[in-house]
Amino acid sequence: MRDLVLLPGFMCDADLWADMLPDLERLGRLHYGNVYQDDTLEGMARRVLGESPDRFVLIGFSMGGFVARVLTLLAPERVRGVAFVASSARAYTKEETERRRQGYLPGNRAPGAGGVAMGLHPDRERDPVLLDRLRGMQRRLGPEVRARQAALVRNDGYADLERIACPALVVACRQDRLRSFAETERMAQHLPHARFDIIEDCGHMAPLERPHELAALLADWISEAGL
């Protein structure tokens, strides 16, 4: 049976994948990447590699896609295929980097008193169940993990994608307000062996908003690529 390594987004824990579990478990053994103890992408990638099976399919959501890119280049012989969901390879501007250092995280901040989450589709940004799950993940992970993940330096990685030789899947979400459609689509254009898919009527948080559609795309890609 194949192994799948799951890399979550910023301030997301295993609950991110909960609604996808029945579908994902039919695809293989699941392993949850530890992206909580390091403050660099390479540190995260090396930790995940040290805790993963010899060969695996890698699935990175949002921030996890940045880690997935670094990991795949560190150990290409171990990654059978890599999926990037609502992710990017765009560098942060100096202004974005400085704002993050100061703790200002637009869109990714925990839903505040106004009860709005920019990471969700506009029609679901006040959904009480989804808001509670987002708050729950951030509460469980706490301020130390937030500080480490906020400290990540993200340099432009589009040229690096061209060195990834394994099968790749890039998934964009049509109403994603945290990751522009163009920057996600650009990932597929730079990957030598990429499939590009779009989830409609979905904000950034695809595993929570459209779990079955995302799982179906992953299953179809794995089958099509022979992984």
Q: What topology emerges from the helices and strands here?
A:
Blueprint lengths: L2 E5 L13 H5 L3 E4 L8 H10 L5 E6 L1 H12 L4 E7 L8 H8 L26 H23 L7 H4 L6 E6 L7 H10 L3 E6 L6 H4 L1 H15 L2
Parallel strand pairs: 1-2, 1-3, 3-4, 4-5, 5-6
Helix pairs in contact: 2-3
Task: Provide a compact summary of the structure.
The chain has 227 residues and is of the alpha/beta class. Helices cover 40% and strands 15% of the residues. It has helices at 21-25, 41-50, 63-74, 94-101, 128-150, 158-161, 181-190, 206-209, 211-225; strands spanning 3-7, 29-32, 56-61, 79-85, 168-173, 194-199.
How would you describe the overall organization of this protein?
With 227 residues, the chain is α/β, with parallel strands linked by helices. The chain has one domain: Alpha/Beta hydrolase fold, catalytic domain (Rossmann fold, 3-Layer(aba) Sandwich), CATH 3.40.50.1820. Helices cover 40% and strands 15% of the residues. The protein has helices spanning 21-25, 41-50, 63-74, 94-101, 128-150, 158-161, 181-190, 206-209, 211-225, and strands spanning 3-7, 29-32, 56-61, 79-85, 168-173, 194-199. It has a 6-stranded parallel sheet, sandwiched between helices. Helix 1 links the parallel strand 1 and strand 2. Helix 2 packs across helix 3. The radius of gyration is 16 Å and the shape is globular. The model is unreliable at 104-113 (pLDDT under 50).
